[in-house]
Amino acid sequence: MPFYLEIIMCISLLIGGVFLLIGSYGLVRLPDIYMRLHSPTKASTLGITGVLIASMIFQSHLKGFLSIQELLITLFLLITAPVAANMIAKTALHHRTKPIEKTQNQDLMETIRNRETIKPPQEPN
């Protein structure tokens, strides 16, 4: 295997590993479910993407042609992770899971739960 491919794979694996580590740490350390959703959907998705890019490069070199399985897995993850996080957030909202006290705009949670239109604040004249 050419040295430049090994360097690209190592960099991709390191970047993916760092994002996975940050995502895992955030999942453990963030205080409530609404904040914990950011770690797996953002950092971990980028981490898995880095690992899959390295795998794609390796498999493409072994087979001699472009390996698209990893691209399809990455595309699937990039599409489904935000949708899953949205569904988990809606479930937590409808089960009335309380956010931490410092969360801003907690007064809007009941409005969102009832699917009402959020009115923008009125500007004073």
CATH architecture: Orthogonal Bundle
Q: What is the number of strand segments?
A: 0
How is the quaternary structure best described? single chain
Structural class: mainly alpha
Mean pLDDT: 87
* Biggest β-sheet strands, sense, barrel: none
Distance N to C terminus? 70 Å
- Tell me, briefly, the overall form: elongated
Helix content: over 70%
Total count of domains? 1
CATH topology: Helix Hairpins
So how many helices?
5
Beta-strand percentage range: under 5%
Just give the CATH class.
Mainly Alpha
**What does the radius of gyration come to?**
20 Å
Taken in chain order, the helices and strands follow as HHHHH
Low-confidence stretches: none
Could you walk me through the main structural features you see in this protein, from its secondary elements to its overall organization?
The chain has 125 residues and is mainly α. The protein has helices at residues 3-29, 33-36, 38-63, 69-94, 108-113. Helix 1 packs antiparallel against helix 3. The mean pLDDT is 87.
